[in-house]
Design a protein that fits this description.
Distance between the termini: 45 Å
Strand content: 5-15%
Number of strands: 5
Strand order of the largest sheet: 1-2-3
Number of helices: 8
Order of helices and strands: EHHEHEHHEHEHH
Radius of gyration: 20 Å
Length: 199
């Protein structure tokens, strides 16, 4: 299954960072958004989870979300025809902005329904206490970036409280301290190697 959050099946996402713009533009030369939304049918369940007040994607007039609802509705017919009647759907948080909806209770419920959650029943998921994302980040010394660190966006997210604690930064690093900046681990080093081999 896939949980898509902070994104839309709409041309508005074409005007974004180059790393995502180019593949989406090329995809749109071949497919409609409905075709694209139907590609996973019937084997992959898709949940699109967004905030109705996410002006980063929708720009405040709900037109993107309305177009996406239509695309999901049309794509759901493809899923139904292929034997997966609940294969794609969209969920929106009223008054929510650009938030990590892929870790909301609604997403956990979808995971439970389609993949299973051996350590937790559906009722246990629904009864999980919640924590405010901004307060959790403050408590653990995590600084949110300026754009998303607002109550409308990440700071206002209501997350299931799973008793998680951040992993210390030094445990997240794959490279050893003496390897940091080494040409074999940098883009510059890779480009230099490509240039050397092309001569």
């Amino acid at each position: 299954m896939a949980i898509v959050s902070g994104w839309a099946y709409d041309d508005v996402v074409l005007r974004t960072k180059y790393c995502t713009r180019l593949p989406n533009e090329r995809m749109r030369e071949q497919l409609s958004w409905t075709d694209y939304a139907s590609l996973a049918a019937p084997d992959c369940t898709v949940l699109l989870a967004n905030g109705e007040a996410d002006w980063i994607i929708d720009q405040g007039d709900n037109s993107v979300w309305e177009r996406m609802r239509q695309i999901v509705s049309t794509a759901s017919n493809v899923y139904k025809q292929l034997g997966s009647p609940d294969g794609i759907h969209a969920w929106f948080e009223a008054e929510g902005g650009h938030r990590p909806y892929f870790i909301y209770k609604q997403s956990l419920e979808c995971i439970h329904q389609h993949l299973g959650t051996p350590a937790m029943t559906l009722q246990q998921i629904r009864e999980l206490p919640t924590v405010n994302s901004g307060q959790w980040c403050d408590q653990h010394g995590i600084q949110l970036e300026h754009l998303y660190g607002t109550p409308l966006h990440q700071r206002g997210a209501t997350l299931p409280d799973l008793g998680l604690h951040p992993t210390p930064r030094e445990k997240l690093s794959y490279l050893q301290p003496d390897e940091l900046g080494s040409p074999q681990f940098t883009v510059e080093g890779w480009l230099q190697e490509i240039e050397r081999k092309s001569r």
